[in-house]
Amino acid sequence: MSSIRHDAAFAALRAALMASYAGTLASTRMSPLEALEAMAAALGSIYREVADSHLDPEGCRCGWQPHALRDIVALEQAMGINAAGDEQESLFDLRSIMPAGHG
Ligand SMILES: [Zn+2]
Predict the structure, then answer these.
(1) Ligand 1 centre and the CA of 64: distance in Å?
(2) Which tens digit of pLDDT belongs to each residue from 46-99?
(3) How far away, in angstroms, is 16 Cα from ligand 1 center?
(4) Interhelix angle for 32-55 vs 4-27, to 10°?
């Protein structure tokens, strides 16, 4: 996740999510955390849909093989590491439970 292409994708996704977050806050009575939880729930359901399309023999043939437990841990860690920032590093260092490797 360090190439320029990844950095650009991250920036574009972050901007899109921020716009969705702002729109949700403006159009609902959700609290900030409720809106963020809804976004996290949406991401989880997108994972499920994408994974299912790769488990389907008639689905995507790109070769990626979903592994729900491992994939969900990776998603949770990606969110937690970015959410914690410097604030909670001394309380609970999420980096210390990062598994080695990719896939
Ligand atoms: Zn695919």
Answers:
(1) 6
(2) 999 999 999 999 999 999 999 999 999 999 999 999 999 876 655 555 556 666
(3) 22
(4) 130
Using the mean position of ligand 1's atoms as its centre, give its distance from the Cα of residue 90 in Å. Answer: 39
- What is the rounded CA–CA span in Å between residue 80 and residue 97? 11
Calculate how far, in angstroms, residue 50's C-alpha sits from the geometric centre of ligand 1: 8
Mean pLDDT of the chain: 89
pTM of the model: 0.77
Task: Measure the CA–CA gap between 97 and 103, rounded to whole angstroms.
Answer: 16
Measured distance CA(100)–CA(84) in Å, rounded: 20
Distances, alpha carbon 97 to alpha carbons 17, 38, 66, in Å: 27, 26, 21
User: CA dist 40 to 9, 11, 58, 79, Å?
Assistant: 18, 18, 28, 9
What's the CA-to-centroid distance between 92 and ligand 1, angstroms? Answer: 35
